[in-house]
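Weekly sync notes, structure subgroup
Attendees: PM, AL, DS (notes)

Item 1: joint prediction request from the bench team. They want all two components modeled as one assembly rather than separately. Inputs as received:
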Amino acid sequence: MTKVLTKTDQRPIRLKGRSFLALVLAPEMPFEEWLGRLDDLASRSAGFFLGRPVVLDVEGLQVSRAELQAMIEQLAERNVRIMGIENAKPSQIGPGMPPAMRGGRPADDFAAPAEDAEPAGQASQSGEAKASPSADAPQVRATSSMIIDTPVRSGQSIIFPEGDITVVGSVASGAELVAGGSIHVYGTLRGRALAGSVGNASARIFCHKLEAELLAIDGLYKTAEDMEPKLKGKSVQLWLDGDAIRAETFN
Amino acid sequence: MAKVIVVTSGKGGVGKTTSTAALGAALAQRGEKTVVVDFDVGLRNLDLVMGAERRVVYDLINVIQGDAKLPQALIRDKRLETLHLLPASQTRDKENLTEDGVERVMDELRKSFDWIICDSPAGIERGATLAMRHADTAVVVTNPEVSSVRDSDRIIGLLDSKTAKAERGDKIDKHLLLTRYDGARAERGDMLKVDDVLEILSIPLIGIIPESMDVLRASNVGSPVTIADERSEAAIAYRQAAQRLAGENLPVALPGERRGFFGKIFGRRAA
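Output from the run, pasted for the record:
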């Protein structure tokens, strides 16, 4: 007890989220045949799978845990390292195997190395294509945003890791907004607002009227009790300054 | 064209059953064929408030399970021949309330009634979601206090996402019925004011029912207040709410503003 009381460092541990682009492989049955096609693909571009995070999608695949384990080993022999398994039944996954993954969102397809079987002379060309940024580097896009023009009700949870959330209306007590970017509420913010949830310290929260239960930017949070009483009911913007949430009212 | 209305709130004890009976009777008094349906399996009360508890033979679950035909389970009101009750089961397990079964009963009721008013149980579980499932319009019953308002907000969210109409991409009409309103207490700040509730819930208001002994008395004698005490302020407020549900455009008046007599009642209670 005294140990806890005398602890000087009271900084909370910051729990951050980050999203990565992974390549998804969906094996088909019979597995040996599929593996043959995979070998064929890999032979066109040595090291295509090297150092890439790969997720195995086993939806609809009727295999036992041992068979799945064997598949993963056979893939490992080909330098395909599986970081997670999607759509697996709990019975198919055991200790020592990659963890089950959930909540994947589709992204652009990866360009497979050289679509047709090409002569050796053109192989270098395909190597060049791979080096160009457009092939498989994440494309730079404008920050996306989500606009909600109805009130967000208690118990609703709006999660948008890709960018900003703008609510034209109020956010009720017991509702939750989680944005990868900033949060804008053109109404009363009574619920929770978590901005910069995927590790974006420059995200901000703007609201027309602050009555929030909880505010967080980049994992650093503040409950209603910790907020300055003079901010209540005001038009406010909040941002992160180092390890502190700063607030300013608009006049 | 039949219209299905769900009377819902999330929180218990705010006046769903009383409001179902009062609105049902008010609509039936307009000469339109009305049925009130109790969805509170295991804790039914609508039969008591309607004064039909001694006439229940078959119930909603019997109809769903095929033990009885719908006309056998419907109870016609003794005072108003356009008013009917479909009671809930008090003894059966609420698991017997199935989605298919409810849909079948609703389709059959739509054929022979103008208004189908579903009395939702409290909470957000099966009974409540099935009661709202096939509704065209929702009446959200709310008391002017914070917990009731938050629960109503939650229910509005469910109405917008879990009803058949919402799943088809249509918008379900939602109306706020503010019950147990006490003007004097709201003025003193003991209760939320009407504007506060409207600002939080942001749905149109169809009526403000004053906290009144008439409502309690009517429930206890087994008669909807709109039949038992037609000229009481609560009955007038319910009747006007029913008119608004039927599409009439009437301004909503704050209770106690209209007559000095009620001002006296409020004044006395506040002392």
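Discussion: The longest strand of chain A covers residues 183-189.
Action: AL to compare against the crosslinking data before next sync.
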